[in-house]
Design a protein that fits this description.
The structure is a single chain. By secondary structure, the chain is of the alpha/beta class. The chain contains 20 helices and seven strands. Strand 2, helix 5 and strand 3 form a beta-alpha-beta unit. Helix 10 crosses helix 11 and helix 16 packs antiparallel against helix 17. The termini are far apart.
């Protein structure tokens, strides 16, 4: 039976074996850390004494999910774990794998446990791409310990991974790698003769490395790729036979990074949240910046315009009723114009809304009213307010004693159910428009409502 299984004593990460000879692999792949001491950044989770480092060094962990931007070390940490454990290591990709492949890996893990008493670590990259069926297949085997599960994702696992799987895993959020750490990583790559570029005669200016680090946006893979490109495309100096990586070379080697913006991911929701909060906070500069981020990321113009319509009532309301008119006109205009010209209309509307007086009184009023309705139930409509389309209804008192307000505006009558008479649901905010509302309401209802 043992012949059914390959000898993996020298290859724990068998599924991640490179398709090309190691010497020909990209620099980022060659420089992938082999142990935890080589990992750059993420000291908040793998620094001395931190939970994840202790768990890796003691080989005592159950299920893990690494969550963070590209190039921050999610797959690297999984590889480090594979190199520091007695477990066998299997890898799947959430984009390419299907339910049958998940079942096959589980079946192999069960056989290895039975025949060799060896646990399998199952690493799933881009776990957010696994559908519910795939995650459901995995879940019972994670619960029973058939496999030790490690997932990696750029999306918030609390939104994109099944709750039962999240609840059985420890979540570790990885942060973008700092520019200083990226410079250190590139310097190691330049000096490493075995895996890096140390066998080449390279001098890299400090400004060049700093530029690459800054433009990499915390992505180690991007920094190493740019460094390798600079080294391989720069000719040697004829006099000193050295490759000189200058700031100019660095600028050519790392172009502007595309805006990271997933239409259904964290960047979408986080950027939209920053956009709305900037308008609500009356900061037109920040609001236009986040608007630009959404536009550059390819956001749907209708989504942006809808958010402005909602905000005009939720956050501005009657402090400036014209805001809703502006937002509605903007919505109509951008749907006719489309990008790129619609960005100008959006900018105009966003700046107007950001500079407007703010009030959430209308929003709070409808919330208060709905809470009251849910709490009070089906309270009867007062008889004098009921519709009386027939003689019978009039005989029953429907509409009796109703006062037509236009004829007698000074006469007060009850418009709420008796049980909640005098309940104040609308509380004007402190701005010029609603202060005038408050004064009017106070004069009109001073003996009934709290104004």
């Amino acid at each position: 039976m043992d012949s059914l299984f390959p000898d993996t004593s020298d290859m724990k990460a068998n599924e991640s074996e490179p398709a090309v000879p190691p010497s020909q692999a990209p620099l980022a792949a060659r420089m992938r850390p082999k142990n935890i001491s080589e990992v750059v950044g993420q000291q908040h989770i793998i620094g001395e004494g931190h939970l994840l480092r202790r768990a890796i060094e003691a080989d005592r962990f159950s299920s893990l999910i690494f969550y963070g931007p590209p190039g921050t070390g999610k797959t690297t940490l999984a590889t480090v774990i594979a190199n520091n454990t007695d477990c066998r290591f299997e890898m799947l990709n959430g984009v390419e794998s299907n339910v049958a492949e998940v079942r096959d890996k589980i079946s192999q893990a069960q056989k290895w446990r039975q025949l060799r008493d060896q646990t399998t670590i199952l690493f799933i990259d881009e776990i957010h791409r696994f559908n519910k069926a795939q995650q459901d297949v995995l879940l019972p085997h994670v619960e029973r310990g058939t496999v030790r599960f490690i997932g990696a994702t750029t999306h918030n696992p609390y939104f994109y991974v099944n709750s039962p799987l999240v609840s059985r895993s420890q979540i570790f959020q990885l942060e973008p790698i700092t520019s200083n750490d990226l410079v250190d990583l590139m310097q190691v790559a330049l000096s490493d003769k075995e895996r890096g570029l140390g066998s080449m005669q390279i001098i890299a200016d400090a400004q060049a490395l700093a530029h690459i680090a800054e433009k990499s946006d915390g992505d180690a893979r991007r920094a190493l790729t740019a460094l390798e490109l600079a080294a391989l495309t720069t000719p040697e100096d004829d006099e000193h036979h050295m490759i000189r990586i200058t700031l100019e070379v660095a600028e050519e080697s790392i172009q502007h990074k595309a805006i990271v913006y997933d239409a259904d991911g964290d960047q979408h929701y986080d950027t939209a949240s920053a956009f709305i909060k900037s308008i609500r906070g009356s900061d037109p500069n920040a609001a236009v910046y986040w608007l630009s981020r959404m536009i550059e990321g390819g956001e749907d113009v209708k989504f942006i315009a809808r958010r402005l319509l909602i905000l005009a009532s939720e956050d501005i309301g009657n402090a400036n009723p014209t805001a809703l008119v502006i937002a509605n006109n903007c919505f109509q205009a951008v749907n006719v114009i489309g990008f790129p010209e619609a960005r100008i209309t959006l900018s105009q509307a966003v700046i107007y809304l950001a500079c407007s007086a703010k009030s959430n009184a209308s929003y709070m009023a409808i919330n208060e009213a709905q809470d009251e309705v849910r709490k009070s139930g089906n309270l009867s409509v007062p008889l004098h307010l009921r519709n009386a389309p027939s003689k019978l209804m009039k005989e029953l008192g429907y509409g009796k004693d109703y006062i037509y307000s236009h004829n007698k505006p000074s006469d007060k009558q009850e418009f709420l159910p008796e049980e909640i008479s005098g309940k104040t649901l609308y509380n004007p905010s402190n701005n010029s428009k609603e202060n005038a509302f408050r004064e009017g309401l106070k004069n009109l209802w001073k003996e009934k409502y709290n104004y």
